[in-house]
Specification:
CATH architecture of one domain: 3-Layer(aba) Sandwich
Strand content: 15-25%
CATH class of one domain: Alpha Beta
Number of strands: 13
CATH topology of one domain: Rossmann fold
Largest sheet: 7 strands, mixed
Shape: globular
CATH superfamily of one domain: Vaccinia Virus protein VP39
Structural class: alpha/beta
Radius of gyration: 18 Å
Distance between the termini: 46 Å
Number of helices: 9
């Protein structure tokens, strides 16, 4: 698969014009109005692609700079066209909890939407993204926001050390998943190993979005982590739960977690009270 990445042109090279900026504001607003709003939004997205001279947009969202790609990654598209509707419950909760000493690990960081917003709120962030070209996009977005430092790691996270393969979804890089029939070879590391190597002896929040591999990330972590490393908040995708070999939520319950919310975008939020 050929993946578009421009991490050499300066920020602003793909700045939307005035008409596009007004269109984006309107699209973000109309998306909130139920089924009809979403239908209108879909037609306007086609208009944006018609007006655009290229597939890339340099924009500011939530006070941060981003280089976003109109095609091939849903997270980029959401952040470009309807940012306020992109996982608001999850990100608001994490940002409200961020304070000095807050440590957040983002497994499946994609373009950096969670990682950079939590870093901007004052958290210490480790962002993990295995896909090589998606990682380049993450690096570029992080470099655009030097006041929001995040530690970036290119690897997969799972239940063992070793090499695994990724199967790409050509329509959405965010749906890239671990599959031995895949064509992209990457390193895999257990989460506890990563925390140890990064010198993290406490963890405040954890997000895991790895397309059906959540159990391989979370079961060994929740089973073996010392009390100090158990985060107060876990955000994890559950829409691929039929691919799990073990339900990590049961182990989480045994370690004191309770389900706080399920969100419209397929995430479950677990809270562990002090």
């Amino acid at each position: 698969m050929s993946v578009i990445v421009d991490d050499t042109s300066p920020f602003g090279a793909y700045r939307p014009n005035a008409v596009q900026r007004r269109l984006y504001r309107f699209m973000a607003g109309v998306y909130r109005y139920g089924w009809i709003g979403k239908r209108i939004f879909g037609r306007l997205r086609w208009l944006d692609r018609t007006l655009a001279s290229g597939g890339i947009a340099d924009v500011e969202r939530f006070g941060l700079r981003w280089r976003l790609y109109r095609r091939g990654n849903v997270s980029d598209s959401r952040l470009l066209l309807r940012p306020e509707s992109f996982d608001p419950l999850e990100t608001d909760l994490l940002r409200q909890r961020a304070r000095p000493g807050f440590a957040f690990v983002d497994v499946g960081a994609n373009c950096g939407f969670y990682a950079l917003r939590v870093a901007a709120a004052g958290g210490r962030v480790v962002a993990v993204e295995p896909h090589p070209e998606m990682f380049r996009r993450l690096q570029f977005n992080a470099a655009l926001n030097p006041d929001c430092p995040a530690r970036l790691l290119q690897c997969a996270v799972g239940d063992r050390k070793g090499e695994i393969r990724l199967a790409e979804d050509p329509r959405n890089l965010g749906r890239t998943r671990i599959d031995q029939a895949g064509t992209v070879a990457v390193e895999m590391r257990p989460l506890l190993d990563i925390l140890g190597d990064e010198g993290l002896d406490r963890l405040s929040a954890l997000k895991v979005d790895v397309e059906g591999f959540e159990d391989r990330v979370l079961v060994p972590f929740l089973r073996d982590a010392p009390e100090a490393l158990l985060p107060g908040t876990i955000v994890a995708e559950h829409t691929w739960s039929d691919h799990w070999t073990e339900d990590w939520r049961q182990i989480a319950g045994q370690r004191g977690y309770r389900e706080w919310a399920r969100t419209p975008t397929g995430n479950v939020i677990l809270i562990r009270d002090p």
